[in-house]
Amino acid sequence: MSFGSFKYALLAGTVLATGTAQAACNLELSASLPLKVENGRMFVPGYIGEHPVEYLVDLAAMNTLLVAAGREYGVTPDNFRSLPLKAVMGDMQKQATLGPDADHNVALAVDHLPIRLGGSLANFGSPQAVAALGMDFFAHFDVEFDAAHQTLNLFSPHGCESAKLAYWTKHYVAADMVANVTRPLNVEPYTVYNFPHINMRVSVNVHEMLAAIDTGYQNSSLSLAAAHTAGIESGAETDPAPDVFDGYSNRAWLGSADQIALGSETIAAAKPHIQSFRPPAGSTTATIGNIAANTRNLGDDMVLGADFFLSHRVLVSYSQNKVYFSPIEGQTFLGATPSLPVETAAAR
Phi/psi of residue 104, each to 5°? Predict the structure, then answer.
């Protein structure tokens, strides 16, 4: 599968060193965007043409403009399935006040953003959210989620192929992106064209499993089949898990796991949600592209949702096919406090 190319207009330029001994590695900061959290999901404010919007951050989807918003704005993708209006992410007014000599950018302007029309909802859970930024946007960068500082950083790495990119801490996990072999397009080695998921290896009650990173989900969850494999029974029923594109919902339960391990990070006495990732009978399937509609979450043992990103500092390195992360002090995940061995600087 090929992805439409786009040009991005940098409003200022800066280069960040990693702060490690790898002097050859520089992370060029393309933009440092404001990250908003609403209803347990992450959004980036911006514009489509003159229309203010909030973009849902969805690493497991392709860029999507909701049908209702396209109709309201009179916008349809052109013949190359790109947006005929300029897309802006971030704070243009603040960028203007910083001036041309600013040492960082807080806005990014994109001409001909690859986009698809889809979904039957009016928004994604935020009053102005009418579009999703997906992997065909983010895969052009290494993406850092710094929820504690409400910031999403987009890096262009140079000379960083073997560098350790978790520059903010000495204690972190560096997890390899792997393919989910249940999908015909996802083959080893992982590449960003193995749409739609980033998968990483996890362990649930010492059972090795695959977890998909899917920020479109509010809560990290186990599939019913994976919970059964790990010997986890469904507990009290909790709020249904809604689909952000078409609004159907699946029943969900809280379970209890002795331990969930994400590399060297462990969550003891974890309380994961349990649900089916299949649309319920009679529902409308997600209309975000033929491949996504047929494969999103099918075959996944676990989903790491927005709550993972809100409780961790995360750098998704498409350039290295790795995910770096460390828990945020004072934050819980899956109902417990994640822990890393003090002596472990990095573990896969």
Answer: -155, 160
123, 158, 193 - which closes a domain: 158
Task: Give the C-alpha separation, 165 to 26, whole Å.
Answer: 10
Q: Are residues 49 and 109 in the same domain?
A: yes
Cα separations (Å) of 107 from 44, 121, 163, 230, 333?
Answer: 10, 27, 27, 44, 30
pTM above 0.90, yes or no: no
Beta strands 257-262; 151-158: pairing state: unpaired
Q: What is the 3-state secondary structure (H, E, C) of 191-229?
A: CCCCCCCEEEEEEECCEEEEEEECCCCCCCEEEHHHHHH
Number of domains in the chain: 2
Q: Which amino acid type is present at position 61?
A: A
Residue type at 122 in one-letter notation: A
Of 147, 174, 158, 163, nearest in space to 19 by CA: 163
What gap in Å lies between CA 50 and CA 74, rounded to an integer?
Answer: 12
Does the structure show a pLDDT above 60 at 241? yes
Rounded Cα gap, residues 227 and 220, in angstroms: 13
Residue 202, in any domain of the structure? yes
Residues 81 and 115 sit within 8 Å (Cβ to Cβ): yes
User: Which among 329, 348, 334, 310 is positioned nearest to 145, based on CA atoms?
Assistant: 310
pLDDT of residue 282: 65
Structural domain for 107, as ranges: 7-158
Tell the residue number behind the tokens 């075959």, with chain if given.
299
The amino acid present at 275, given as its one-letter code, is Q
Amino acid letter for position 70? G
Whether residues 124 and 183 fall in one domain: no
CATH number at residue 110: 2.40.70
Neighbours of 189 (CB within 10 A): 10
Q: pLDDT tens for residues 144-179?
A: 999 999 999 999 999 999 999 999 999 999 999 887
